[in-house]
Design brief:
This is Alpha-aminoadipic semialdehyde dehydrogenase. It comes from Kickxella alabastrina. There is one protein chain. With 230 residues, this protein is of the alpha/beta class. It is built from eight helices and nine strands. Strand 8, helix 7 and strand 9 form a beta-alpha-beta unit. The radius of gyration is 20 Å and the shape is elongated.
Length: 230
């Protein structure tokens, strides 16, 4: 296994049971605590990952828009953090592009499995930060899993073209090359799926990814990154 931490190029659906009775305040708080713990989150979390966790920018709180409940706080990146991360991503991209595409696909497969293993707590967190029902939160995480499956297959089909040449006895070869560092900016309403759609494809194609999630879903961004970094 090629461990992600060495090069850091990142930077089945089950519906939860629905109760007919509204949850009490204590039940909601308990659900939030269990969800955060299952994802390795706390009331305060560093929000920058570039091989190591850090954060020297503004500290922002995220809340459940349906209840107003404060879910936790994340320390954002400073300008210096951003520049350092971009530099590391550039270095990682030079190593990552040299990894054979099927090997890159195998790592994306491992990332897909790691997300799938946490689909229920991660789906609950999406629901909490967005204020929507849990089934939709879990369904969004499933979209990451589905696109990762596609990306893994794509990693073995990144072929080019053989084109006719005007010169006798010659042919021209067309080969796809990685872009380098690719940025993903995701909105609050699809905090996992948008990143998954772009990163799974970008990674198997040999690019390093830098992700800027929406500030209102910062906990989800940190949770996904923790799952993938492990």
């Amino acid at each position: 296994m090629l461990r992600l931490s060495k090069i850091t190029p990142l930077l089945s659906l089950r519906q939860p049971p629905v109760s007919s009775r509204p949850l009490s305040t204590s039940s909601v708080l308990r659900t939030t605590s269990v969800t955060l713990k299952a994802l390795g989150l706390d009331s305060y979390n560093l929000g920058v990952y570039n091989g190591e966790w850090s954060g020297n920018g503004e500290i922002i709180e995220t809340t459940n828009p349906a209840t107003g409940e404060v879910l936790g706080a994340v320390q954002q990146a400073s300008a210096r953090d951003l520049n350092e991360t971009l530099q590391k991503a550039t270095e990682a991209s030079r190593a990552w592009r040299k990894v054979p595409a099927p090997k890159r696909g195998d790592i994306v497969r491992q990332m897909r499995n790691a997300v799938a293993d946490k689909i229920e707590p991660l789906g609950r967190l999406v629901a909490l930060e967005m204020g929507k029902i849990a089934a939709e939160g879990v369904g969004e995480v499933q979209e990451y899993v589905d696109v990762a499956d596609y990306a893994v297959g794509l990693s073995r089909m990144l072929g080019g073209s053989v084109l006719p040449s005007e010169r006798p006895g010659h042919s021209m070869l067309e080969v796809w090359n990685p872009l380098g560092v690719v940025g993903v900016i995701s909105a609050f309403n699809f905090p996992v799926a948008v990143y998954g759609w772009n990163s799974a494809i970008g990674l198997v194609c040999g690019n390093a990814m830098v992700w800027k999630g929406a500030p209102t879903t910062s906990l989800t961004s940190v949770a996904v990154t923790k799952i993938l970094a492990e």
